[in-house]
Amino acid sequence: MQVLKENDFETEVLKSDLPVVIDFYATWCGPCKMITPIFEELAKEYSGKVKFAKVDIDESPNLASAYKVRGVPTMMFFKKGQLNSTIVGAQPKTKISEEISKLI
Fold this sequence. Notes:
CATH class: Alpha Beta
Order of helices and strands: EHEHEHEEH
Largest sheet: 5 strands, mixed
Number of domains: 1
Strand order of the largest sheet: 1-3-2-4-5
Radius of gyration: 12 Å
Shape: globular
CATH topology: Glutaredoxin
Structural class: alpha/beta
Number of helices: 4
C-alpha cells in the first residue's frame, strides 16, 4: 500500500483508471491505527479492482486542507478522478465495503 505525497496525488488518484480509496491519517491517531488492519485486508480483497493509498496529514497538509479533512481517520472514495463519498472516523469493515461496492 502506497503512502502518497502531495506531488503523487494527481497521478495516483485523480488520473487513476481504477477507483481509489484514500485513508487520510496521522501517526499519532489512535483510531487510525485501529482501522489500518481493516484497510489492509480490504486492499487485498479488492486487489486489481480498487487502488488503496494513505495520506499522512502531517506530511501533506495542503492535501488535507484541499479536501477539507477536519478529523482523522477520514476515508475518501474516488472514481474517475471525482470524489464520490467520504467517511470520517473509525468505521467497521462492512461500512467501508459498502462504500467501495458503490465504486465498482
